[in-house]
Amino acid sequence: MRLSLLIILLLVSITGKSQSSYSGHLGTFPITLILHHQSDGDGILKAYYVYDTYDNTITINGNLKNKELTLFEKDNVENITATLAFENFNKNDKEIRGKWISADSKKAYPILLQKDFDISEGDDMSWEDKELIQSKTTKEHYFKTVITKEQDDYYAKISRVKIFEKGTDRLIQTIKLDCQLWGISNLNIGDFNFDGIQDFSVFEASYAGSNTSSIYILRDAHSEKYLKSNFRGSYLEFDNDLKVIYENNQCCAGRSRTEKAYKVVDNEMILIERKCLEYNDDKEDYIEIKCE
Fold it and tell me: pTM of the full predicted structure?
């Protein structure tokens, strides 16, 4: 089976965003590199890579400083085990070169990558079916989001998610979506219906304040397939000990909050508690009010 390495980088700033996909080799190993840019300047970044043989990701952190891109692979106690270094890095280059170096410097492998495509913002471009592997996996499956962009849309979106079997790369299922592209943090793993089986969610949209929504996709207990659930709400949190879903919806610059609690019955959210809160300037705290 082809062994590939995928690295995803997050460069944080307040300016425009884009993503780039590269492919090539680390030593003799085929690799794919996907970069998420938010700035042309220096900055702290996050990254991960995955070997296709195992289809599990390894999180790494690093930085971009004076055009040198440096990534650090660490063990469970935060000791650096390897460094990936790219000198004279420029996101506009069609080719980038670097090295993988072990922590003891006894092993080093060259990295040579060619740019495959960019994912950028703007009204004057369009595309379909650009696939980005995700950082989160279940025990049996890994995922790729399919990114599309219409000519008149300023931002790209996630139109589908593909589910693959680990070890064989067999495509199990494709699920249609309509979600915002949210950097590298589009997909998360959890047991959302509390049945003891790993499910996954895809970030859907952000709204005013801290309000966000996701699409919750549940694993069928009797097959390898998944099904989009009817779970809906703002900023849902899942308590696997109590088997309760909590929702927190804010408005008015955070001065008003609605808190809800749900149980899950037959894969449906059933409301069991609702509380409305409003910030009181005299008490400098939230007080409970009657829900309208």
Answer: 0.85
